Amino acid sequence: MKVHATDFMLAIAGGALLAIMISFNSQLAGFSSPMTASWVAHGIGAVTALGLIAILGTVSKHRKKPVLTTAKAPRWAYLGGLPGAAAVAIAAITVNSPLGLSGSLALGLLGQILFSLATDKFGWFGLKKRPLTVHDFVVVGLIGAGSMLLIFAGDAA
Amino acid sequence: MIGLILLALFNGVLIALARNLNGRLNLAQGPFKASWFNHLTGFLFLCGLLFAVSPGEFHFSEKVPGYVYLGGVIGALYVAVNSYILHRIGAVKSVLFVLGGQMITSLIIDAMQAGLHNLVMQGAGVILIFAGMYFSLHKSRNQPTEKTSASSNQRTEAEA
Q1: Any CB–CB contact under 8 A between A20 and chain B?
Q2: Which of A125, B90, B120, B142 is the S-S candidate for B20 at Cβ 3.0 to 4.6 Å?
Q3: Could you state, in order of their start, the residue ranges of all structural domains in chain A?
Q4: Residue-wise pLDDT tens digits, A142-157
């Protein structure tokens, strides 16, 4: 697949959205609990996604490349919400343990990166198989180390 | 402690797993349906979990500022974006670029709320993240299999 600069900019923008979402959701959690806040956020998110589908369904009818398609997907592909929601519940345990917020974040990142290295290498979940190179590990090291510094700098403040 | 460490690591695996499932659905049905099913199944799962853990504790303070509910709206967009890019740039690059954007944005949020208290570590962190992103893009442009046909990128390559 061709590399497009917009894909990388979208990824960075996605990370920015994630940070803002976490900030809002943890403020909401401060008034209730992490799980209740996540429950509310998932409900609002579902309604939002449904609204977007309704709008795009009418808007994109005349486009050559439709935004909404109805090809078949394996059944497991519909279950992304389960591990995502379970992660919220588990985070509530680890954040309130000696690991704290920073430790939980750092270890979670490590888990994410290791699992992603495996998915790319073995081509899991329909991804294109891609051999890992030294270059991958250098990039992982740089961005991973930078993130750890930011996570623990917030802690030390 | 070992158990907690493994649990926190496993949590990262769960998050990556969720993204991979959503990314697969995106291939078949587009990013917004992936976001819809992610939020629907997550919502139903949390309904059950909340009921099992503490039935009846669904109360919210009236003091909650309205804008924090936007977290759900932003979440719908975030899942759509993440599902869309996964198969286009691969799992590792998705995680790293999303992470970079997340870390720098949360630093900006922290700075606005409380100021920066650890400039050396935070400055070094930002530099490392940008270096990693630059290195990742720089190298992938030079790989013949991934060469882009976009004219703007060829121009940057020629200048570099």
Answers
A1: yes
A2: A125
A3: 1-72, 97-157
A4: 999 999 999 999 776 5
Interface contact A74, partner B, CB < 8 A: yes
Q: Is the ipTM of this complex over 0.85?
A: yes
> Within 10 Å of residue B37's Cβ, how many Cβ atoms?
24
Give the dihedral of Cα atoms A157, B1, B3, B8; nearest 10 deg. 0
User: Do the Cβ atoms of B148 and A7 come within 8 Å?
Assistant: no
Minimal-distance CA residue of chain B relative to A104: B8
Establish if B3 belongs to a structural domain: no
Question: Which distant-in-sequence residues (6+ apart) come within 8 Å of B89 by Cβ?
Answer: A3, A7, A8, A11, B97
Domain count, chain B: 2
B4 within some domain = no
Q: Which domain holds residue B76?
A: 11-52+66-89
Q: With an 8 Å Cβ cutoff, are B8 and A74 in contact?
A: no
Asked if the C-beta of A134 comes within 8 angstroms of chain B's C-beta atoms, the answer is: no
Percent helix, strand, coil in chain A, to 5, is 80, 0, 20
- Please report which confidence band the pLDDT of residue B143 belongs to, taking 50, 70 and 90 as the band edges: low
Q: Is residue B103 part of a domain?
A: yes
Residue B61: inside a domain:
no
Which of B41, B121, B149 is closest, CB to CB, to A79? B41
Q: What is the largest CA-CA distance in chain A?
A: 56
**B17 and B36 inside one domain:** yes
